[in-house]
Design the sequence.
């Protein structure tokens, strides 16, 4: 589970939905918003329509959270809010594959 200090609140999620930049591929949709505060916050969402079994949804969320935790250490002081929406079939992949796909999306988004 995402530590409370790095989790987005409901109000922050709403703000990210309103004022975001996004990038997507076949497995993810990543919404990014820059804030004034210096903390890197994120939230991972896996909807029921992505996976019917809760075990698959939980595994997908845990995989994404592990990748983002490592990524957050590099960008800690920049005030970034991320909302990561998982689309489908992520539970079938290994951590290395998820890390490669998600980090390429995040790097492309932050550096652009």
Sequence:
């Amino acid at each position: 589970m995402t530590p409370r200090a790095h989790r987005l609140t409901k109000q922050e999620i709403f703000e990210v939905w309103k004022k975001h930049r996004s990038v997507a591929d076949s497995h993810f949709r990543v919404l990014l918003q820059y804030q004034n505060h210096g903390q890197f916050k994120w939230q991972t969402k896996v909807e029921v329509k992505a996976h019917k079994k809760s075990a698959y949804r939980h595994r997908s969320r845990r995989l994404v959270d592990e990748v983002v935790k490592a990524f957050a250490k590099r960008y800690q002081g920049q005030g970034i809010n991320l909302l990561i929406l998982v689309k489908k079939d992520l539970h079938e992949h290994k951590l290395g594959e998820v890390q490669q796909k998600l980090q390429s999306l995040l790097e492309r988004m932050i550096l652009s």
